[in-house]
Amino acid sequence: MAKVRHLLGISGGKDSAALAIFLKDKYPQIDIEYYFCDTGKELKETYEFIENLQVYLGKEIKKLRTAEGWPGAPFDYYLELYGGFLPSKRARWCTKNLKLEPFERFVGDDPVISYIGIRGDEERDGYISKKSNIQSVFPFRKNIWSEDAVGKVLANENIPLLLELYKKNYPAGKLAEAVSKIITRHISPDYPPNRKLKDLISLNVRQFNRVVFDYLKNTGSSFSHIEYFPLVDNDDVLNFEDIINILENSGVGMPGFYQKIELSVNGEKGWYSRSRSGCFFCFFQQKIEWVWLYEQHPQLFKEAMAYEKEGFTWKENESLEQLSKPKRIRQIKEEYLKTQETDPREKSSFLIDILRFAEDEGCSICFT
After folding, report:
1. pLDDT tens for each residue of 25-35
2. N or C terminus: fewer CB in 10 A for the chain?
3. What pTM does this model have?
């Protein structure tokens, strides 16, 4: 059998870091390789956090960079290649070239199991590679399998095989009858795949995991190269509070850019912070986060502003030069404070509540 590589991408945010700690502590028998796709344009707080995490893991977090031989940051190489065309929500060449490309080059043709830190309280599946040798799993969720794997397992044409696999893993009795009733019901508009998945998992998640693993072992996927996968017995569901506890209890703590900083305008006070990992000029940033960058990292703000030129700005319909005017900054803060007043979730002064509603993880390879 070919040797299977176990890979975990560190984005610089809280969830992927907590997953690395969780797997190290609970499944030390899994030989995991950690990596970080470095654009050369990350915040210093991100690099500091990765160093702290590396110490705890006792293992190198390999920095992957594209544009080998280019003397500067990889981002600048591609910016020049694209003729100064800045990335945007509609043209995310940065994710493709600076995150996905180095990851898939790092993988090569090796069979890989990729661990992704999407929490149990999130409704998304994340990035799924089109490469057949990469199989994604999600240890924090009740359903650890990717959408594409589940879709194959639950396909109507696989009903006889699924029944056979369940008979192998289930004893006879009333529970077996209940499982059989669910399996033999065809997927249709009235009974979509997510409903069938939920019904099977609600009966016994470990049995479902074993069945999916047995199926994947015979499909030529990465799991066909291993006899046993420890996470088939996983029934943990880790939510936001669990992630915070893992980071705090490990001593690694939270990334520095999450730290809440007080702001005030017109006598009104509130807080602000950055809500995601990723490049300091990420176009997904909210306007208040650009203000945060302007006030907390003025030199980086100037660097971000220097990238802009006529027709190419980070924010649609507004340049950073316009955004950084004192009157405009005041306006952004006023609007932001009003949002805090109207949303009771935003009024909490506790970091755990602040981060619960943050947009975390930036453009890691599990970015949707």
Report:
1. 999 999 999 99
2. N
3. 0.89
